[in-house]
Automatic annotation (TrEMBL):
The keyword Metal-binding applies. This is PHOP2 phosphatase. Transmembrane segments: none annotated. It comes from Sylvietta virens (Green crombec). The active site is at residues 8, 10.
């Protein structure tokens, strides 16, 4: 009996968007209008690439970025939740699927000593170039019309589950914890026995309830959370069963 916990990162594990938080490193803690207005829907990764070039051009170094990123607060109750999962790793496999990047997630999890809680992190690969600029790439290519072009979380989840099956691992239940619009695609892939846990008041919750109103509800159960303590309560029930 093993459960798979799938986490989004921004506004789910941390209470902010890691990509917009990095702007605190910019001169006067803001971006020039031309750069800010250069974002095109579905092309966030390219936009962040330009932001990182701007920071590099302004002499922002890796250690300053790291200091800034590790001040991001965790979502209410999340420290307790990750501690609880860490104590019960024999029952829970735990992955992150995020549109952030490997450098930011790595810094934040390691600073709080939570990196061991997660078995795998699926996010956009990032690295510092020889000139000290942070660069970011697309996670993968896909053909899903619903998702941003760099990441379809459904594809990531499906491929992970297929790989686990090849290793002889199958899950009693998948618990998907997220908040954003790009979490809807993987939630729609979940089966009747699985559970989606959208964060209260965020886009994912709104989209799931719109589907229910248009009489095409998601297959899985839905349990809304506002503090990660709500998630712990549910996981404790799961373990008792």
């Amino acid at each position: 009996m093993k459960f798979l916990l799938v986490f989004d990162f921004d506004h789910t594990i941390i209470d902010e968007n890691s990509d917009t938080w990095i702007v605190k490193c910019a001169p006067e803690r803001k971006l020039p209008n031309g750069l800010r207005n250069s974002y095109q829907p579905g092309h966030w990764t390219e936009y962040m690439g330009r932001v990182f070039v701007y920071l590099g051009d302004n002499g922002v170094k890796e250690d300053e970025m790291k200091r800034t990123m590790t001040t991001i607060p965790f979502t209410a109750g999340m420290v307790d939740l990750l501690g609880f999962i860490g104590e019960n790793k024999d029952l829970f496999d735990c992955i992150i699927v995020s549109d952030s990047n490997t450098v930011f997630i790595d810094w934040i999890l390691k600073a709080a000593d939570f990196h061991k809680v997660f078995d795998e992190v699926f996010t956009n690969p990032a690295a510092f170039s020889s000139t000290g600029y942070l660069t970011v790439q697309h996670f993968h290519a896909h053909h899903c019309a619903k998702c941003p072009k760099n990441l379809c979380k459904r594809k990531v989840l499906k491929e992970f589950l297929d790989k686990q099956l090849e290793r002889g691992v199958s899950y009693t239940q998948i618990v998907y914890i997220g908040d954003g619009g790009n979490d809807l695609c993987p939630v729609m892939f979940l089966k009747k026995n699985d559970i989606a846990m959208p964060r209260q008041g965020y886009t994912l919750e709104k989209k799931i309830s719109q589907l229910a109103q248009s009489l095409s509800p998601v297959q899985c159960s839905v349990l809304v959370w506002s503090s990660a303590i709500d998630i712990i309560s549910y996981l404790k029930l799961l373990i008792k069963e």
